[in-house]
Task: structure prediction
Amino acid sequence: DVKVTQSSRYLVKRTGEKVFLECVQDMDHENMFWYRQDPGLGLRLIYFSYDVKMKEKGDIPEGYSVSREKKERFSLILESASTNQTSMYLCASTQYVQPQHFGDGTRLSIL
Amino acid sequence: QQQVKQSPQSLIVQKGGISIINCAYENTAFDYFPWYQQFPGKGPALLIAIRPDVSEKKEGRFTISFNKSAKQFSLHIMDSQPGDSATYFCAARALSGGYQKVTFGTGTKLQVIP
Result:
C-alpha cells in the first residue's frame, strides 16, 4: 500500500514567518504534488515535481516555493507566511499514469 | 478558471436512496476521470475512475456515467449508507511529457441520514 506521510497534522505560525511543510512517500514515485484545499474551491495545485530537483508551477504558486532534493521527499515552503495562506495543505504522489495517492493533510493557521 | 465544474455543493440523501453528483469539463485533452472520496481528517482517496472511451463503469454501489459528446460525467451511489457520508471530488487528468496534471472539481459534501 502506498503511504504518503505529511510531517504535521496541525501547524500554527505567525505572519512573516518562513514555514516548511514536509511530505514523504514510500513508493519510489517520480511525480509529487502540493495542493491547498479550501471550502468551496476544491483542491488547487500549487507546485509539482516530476523528478529530483525538477519543479513546475501549478495554478496558484504565488507566495510558495518547493524543494525536491531526494526522490521520496517534497517540501513546500511559504517564504513569508500571510493570513491568506491559512488552509489545508495536501501532498500527493504518483507514478506517471497511475492515480494520485494523498497524505492526510496539514492544517496550517497563520496568525 | 474552473475547468471542471461540480454540482451540487452539498447533498442530503436518506439511507437507501440514490446520491447523484454531476461534473462537466471543457478540455478535450483530459484522458482519465477519477472520483475521490474524502472523510473528515483524511486525505482524498481514489473511489472509482473511468476513461472517455467507456460510457459507464460500475463498482459495487458506485457507478460513473460518462457522456463524451456533452463533456459531462456523474457519480451515482446506489442504496446510499450513512458510512458514505463524505466529501466527493470529481477530477480530470491530462498527461504531458513525463508528468500528469489533475484538475479537481470544487467538491460535494454528502450526508446520508438514517
Summary: Chain A touches chain B through 28 residues (CB under 8 Å). The longest strand of chain A covers residues 42-51.
